[in-house]
Amino acid sequence: MAAIAIRDVTKTYGKLRVIHGVSLDVDDGAFIVIVGPSGCGKSSLLRMVAGLEPITAGEIAIGGRVVNGLEPRERNVAMVFQNYALYPHMSVFDNMAYGLKIAGLAKADIRARVERAAAMLQLQPYLARKPRELSGGQRQRVAMGRALVRDPDVFLFDEPLSNLDAKLRVQMRLEIRQLQRAVGTTALYVTHDQVEAMTLADRLVVMHNGVAEQVGTPMEVYRAPATTFVAGFIGSPSMTLLAASVAESGKGLALDGGGLVKPRDTALPEPGRRVLVGVRPEHLSAVSAPNADLELKVTAVEALGADTLAHGVLCGRNGAGATLVARLPGGTRIGPGETLPLAIAPGATHLFDAGTGRRIEPAGR
After folding, report:
1. What residues form DSSP beta bridges with 260?
2. What does the DSSP 8-state code read for residue 171?
3. Has residue 69 got a pLDDT over 60?
4. Domain match, 208 and 331 both
5. How many domains would you assign to the chain?
6. With b meaning 16 or more CB within 10 Å and e meaning fewer, what string describes 296-312?
7. Shared domain check, 91 and 193
8. How many whole angstroms separate alpha carbon 194 and alpha carbon 219?
């Protein structure tokens, strides 16, 4: 086990810079998830930690040892890939044991390590089988077992569940988290799936265009997104952002579509400042018209069982023309064409600077 220190790391391909000075401290035994859309630089960052990509500038240390100049085999890290990368002609046992054989370990030690990992991953009945005789989830377990037997300082996961169906992804992410907790090995996990990120991570690193936009626990990132990008990326459906100005009275937000919203329990910045007002769908509730902060002209409804999602366009006096989604209790009776009065939960309004996209914290914080 080992801590990881990433210091102002950059990566360029010719004149194209894909990683812009990322810094990150990963505690010994922590499970860190790097999340972001395709092309944001998350896999490049992981591959630099593994030694599969050279860094352009900066420093990476594993267990207090700078590894910039070390080959992948010298870093004592184990990587699990999206495509499993199993040898089709080898049995499960031989796939898991191959790296140990190359390293010259004794046969008895190899068997003990493989059997211990197989027991943890419930692979004992399959050790004699070939990969083609396994399901997708079982193949992913074999790939994890091959990493586990090496007793690495760091586990690196590069979107390992992307090829699995939705039900199996849920099962496998629980197994990965339980395995990491059991062995206590430091883990870096890359995904574009925010649900995986939120459920697996001790801390999240939200990447965008080669920049770490925010680092924090899943609930810190959800409750206080640092930028409009993070606000829109974390949460499903995503946060609605409405253009506005702080009213000259300082007692509300004048929406560009017209009307005044008065956030409850939310301190406002100086009058006249241009802002983006963020509201999550789950923080909206249907109310009687006199108590409404917003009015939604419903255009579509998704009945999801426990929840009902009402999609529509703001109308009336507040923010006319902006699109919005409200998450309502399952069974809510609402249909396209109806007008839905909505209230924003106290303290649930997020404010961002309209120019920079950065979060505006209330004065005194």
Report:
1. 254
2. H
3. yes
4. no
5. 2
6. bbbeebeeeeeebbbbb
7. yes
8. 12
Q: Which of 229, 259, 274 is the last residue of a domain?
A: 229
Give the pLDDT confidence of 250-282 residue by residue, as tens digits. 778 888 877 778 887 777 888 889 999 999 999
Return d(Cα 321, Cα 242) in angstroms, integer. Answer: 10
Question: Does residue 119 share a domain with residue 54?
Answer: yes
Which tokens hold the place of 357? 């996209």
Query: What is the value of pTM for the model shown?
Result: 0.89
Distance CA 312, CA 301 (A): 9
Mind listing the pLDDT tens digit for each residue in 303-349?
999 999 999 998 866 666 788 999 999 988 899 999 999 999 988 99
CA-wise closest residue to 170 among 139, 135, 199? 199
Domain that holds residue 313: 237-353
Report the amino acid identity of residue 138.
Answer: Q
245 and 208 within one domain: no
Distances (CA, A) of 183 to 61, 75, 256, 275: 21, 19, 54, 46
142, two tokens = 């074999």
Q: Encoding tokens for residue 337?
A: 């064409």
What's the CATH number where 265 sits? Answer: 2.40.50.140
Question: Which element (helix H / strand E) includes 144?
Answer: helix 136-148
